[in-house]
From TrEMBL:
NCBIfam families: PRK11760.1. Residues 175-269 form the Ribosomal RNA methyltransferase FtsJ domain. S-adenosyl-L-methionine binds at S177, A210, P211, G212, G213, D229, D249, D266. One of its GO terms (molecular function) is methyltransferase activity. This is 23S rRNA (Cytidine2498-2'-O)-methyltransferase.
Length: 345
């Protein structure tokens, strides 16, 4: 029986499960999600084969990575053969051998490394690894004998194992929060579109900028940033000549000339208040694009996410604007999600 295997951040399994069931319901598919004890992993059963034909990783907020596969009970003496049988001849460009991003999952890292070479050798012998194939093969270990094996279209999944984009914090960045914006830019903006959408000299507003972690990313790309915050901004950023610091309230500030090319915001505030602020900036065309973090409550995080996204979408639709609106719980996010809006006209 086929299942959907969904990776998420440990502690957000309920949100991942609720979301996949809601997405399936919207497509009128019957899907039931189960949270595994290992943490960071959700398994969905039901009309998953049909749902998999519609799924795209960018349409899911709390799922980092996914694939359609089969549950396997493996003989520890011959795991490779069990996985080959589970894959059933499925081909792919490459192979990801993974375990959930949880404390229990990390204990399986050694097993994942040990089995890689013999499994890849066997797949190559069977001609199941083929250059430029549309699919990627996945094996997810839950313990030494329980695993899931399957495949997913590469263009509908995350390009990195477990959906984790690992980044190094620049030594001269004012704070580690800079990684959140770097990951967001790489996630939401295709690299071949950066020359047009992240041009040097473009104008950016950073609401709640201090000490400048997000401003740092835009300055590094050559943009001119108006940093809005009553707190101080990193001296090196100010010395760059690309930053104008205004001591003002991010919720009441309005740019003198609109639209600015970019709005960025990582303020510690109730998510609905920030969502309403983003809705205002986007619907009034004060910005062309925006990346904003919403700090989620401890309870009903999926429901709050839906409410916030609805507020933003409703504001844009009332103005009859064409737009792109997406949100992701990124690897460098914690109790928050990152929202991207692009106003097209």
């Amino acid at each position: 029986m086929s299942v959907l295997v969904l990776y998420c951040r440990a502690g957000f399994e309920n949100e991942c499960a609720a979301e996949i069931e809601a997405v399936a319901d919207a497509w009128k598919f019957s899907v039931q999600a189960e949270i595994l004890d290992i943490g960071g992993l959700v398994i969905a059963e039901g009309d998953v084969a049909r749902l998999a034909r519609e799924l795209d990783i960018m349409s899911l907020v709390f799922t980092r990575q996914w694939f359609l596969g089969e549950q396997l009970t493996l003989d520890p003496k011959n795991r490779v053969q069990g996985i080959l049988e589970g894959l059933g001849g499925q081909k792919g460009e490459t192979l990801f051998i993974e375990s959930p991003d949880s404390e229990q999952g990390k204990e399986l890292a050694g097993l994942c490394r040990a089995i890689r070479a013999p499994l890849e050798q066997a797949l190559k012998k069977n001609k199941q690894l083929q250059a430029e194939h549309d699919y990627r093969l996945h094996v997810c270990f839950v313990d030494g004998t329980l695993a899931y094996a399957g495949a997913v279209r590469r263009d509908r999944s995350h390009p990195e194992p477990m959906g984790i984009l690992r980044l190094r914090s620049p030594k001269d960045a004012p704070s580690r929060s800079t990684l959140k914006l770097e990951e967001a830019l790489q996630t939401f903006i295709p690299r071949d579109e950066w020359p047009n959408r992240l041009k040097p000299k473009m104008r950016c507003v950073d609401l709640g900028a201090a000490p400048g972690g997000w401003t740092y990313q835009m300055v590094h790309l050559g943009l001119n940033v108006t940093a809005i915050d009553n707190g101080p901004i990193d001296k090196k950023l100010m010395d760059s000549g690309q930053v104008k610091h205004l001591k003002a309230d991010g919720f009441t500030y309005k740019p003198e000339r609109t639209p600015v090319d970019w709005l960025i915001c990582d303020m510690v505030e109730k998510p609905m208040r920030v969502a309403q602020l983003l809705a205002k900036w986007a619907s009034l065309r004060w910005c062309n694009e925006a990346i904003v973090n919403l700090k989620l409550p401890m309870k009903k995080r999926f429901e709050e996410t839906e409410r916030c996204m609805d507020v933003i979408a409703d504001a844009l639709e009332k103005k009859n604007l064409d737009y792109e609106l997406r949100a992701k719980h990124l690897y460098h996010d914690r109790e928050e999600i990152t929202v991207h809006v692009r106003v097209l006209g």
